[in-house]
Amino acid sequence: DFGGDITKARANLDRAEVRYSPVSFVKTLQYVLTNPSRSTGAGEVYCLDDEPIGMACWSSDAEVGLIPAESINRFLRNAQNPPYRGFGAVGFETSNLLDPAVRNYLKMPDEIRHGVYVTSVYTMGTGSSELVSGDVILSINSHLLNPYGRYRHERYDRIGFEHLIAQAQAGETMTFRIFRNGKEESVDVKVRNIKAEDMLVPYYLYDKRPEYLVIGGFVFQTLTRDYMTMWGEGWQGRVPPHLYQYYREHAFRPTEQRSDIVLLSYVLPTEANLGYHQLGRLVVKSFNGIKIRSLDQMVEAMSNTPQSPFHVVEFELESPTVVIPKASLPMTNQLVRELYGISELAYIDPN
């Protein structure tokens, strides 16, 4: 007894579909219930004929979304055999392939009327190394995909191909039948997971301290989805467009040249940084002449120009260049510690 009452509610099991959950960047199978008798909180369990079928992960006045019991059980089984490899995540984007003119342009034979078009490929996730933009995925593990990217499931009828990938474990191999350069071919695709911390713009960072670096009152940090949600409800339309573009267009495209988006997020006012107090939300392009790929590289770049009396920070979008005098930096840093109660002027994840 935890001091609460067990309550019941009813709803109609309407359909199964592949969609995003509120806390994930991966599309997974969900059950959708309609006409719930009361509002539903996340984590509530729904049963069919006294058998649990899923756990609520989102709800509205008209519908409730469930994580199916089969997905939860699969996770628990896989987690019992360390190391946990995770489920597969899609490493590309697709669009419907309905227009006959597009099929003609791709030189697809008239008898091939199925398949979904690959519009872009990420640098991480399943298919990121094997597929290219312009491919048409005809089938995955012998499951034909219709022009909407759906396949016929023996239990759920037509659902998105993402389910095929999500129910596979990272490290497994799937067979993609594709149409490329005017002909059909089979491609062995390695199933890959996507870890949020490896994204160019991480979707979330659980159990991790935010990374930051304070130099003379200039506060640098990495761009994350959590950072953008500080703009509040409807943040997608309130975040500065150049920051949102990185999240929307490049989050799944880290490279060796750039693994993080580093920001000057704020300036803690002191006399030493007078004239820069209004700067913020700027993407760092270079520090002391070095193109910045990550926050830890900024620490390295601080020793790049020992002969120069200044640290020089350049930003994207032709924003003003910041010049930080080195001679007064120790005194300024100490002042920032005292004025703003900052015990550590930097935290870089050692991993």
Terminal CA distance reads 42 Å
Question: C-alpha Rg, in Å?
Answer: 25 Å
Low-confidence stretches are: none
- Counting DSSP E segments of at least 2 residues, the number of strands comes to 21
What is CATH's topology name of the largest domain?
Answer: N-terminal domain of MutM-like DNA repair proteins
Helix content class:
10-25%
Q: What's the helix-strand series? A: EEEEEHEHEEEEEHEEEEHHEEEHEEHE
Average pLDDT over all residues: 93
How many structural domains in the coordinates? 3
Give the quaternary arrangement of the chains. single chain
Query: How many separate helices?
Result: 7
The proportion of residues in beta strands is 25-35%
Q: Mind summarizing the main beta sheet? A: 8 strands, antiparallel
Q: What form results from the Cα inertia axes?
A: globular
Level-1 CATH class name of the largest domain: Alpha Beta
SS-based class: alpha+beta
Structure write-up:
With 351 residues, the protein is α+β, with helices and mostly antiparallel strands. It has three domains: 12-79, no CATH class; 92-190, PDZ domain (Pdz3 Domain), CATH 2.30.42; 197-347, N-terminal domain of MutM-like DNA repair proteins, CATH 3.20.190. The protein has helices at residues 69-79, 100-105, 162-166, 225-228, 241-250, 295-301, 329-340; strands spanning 12-20, 27-34, 45-48, 51-59, 63-68, 92-95, 116-121, 136-140, 143-144, 150-153, 157-160, 173-180, 183-190, 212-215, 218-222, 262-267, 282-287, 290-291, 310-315, 322-325, 346-347. A hairpin with a 2-residue loop joins strand 17 (282-287) and strand 18. It is globular.
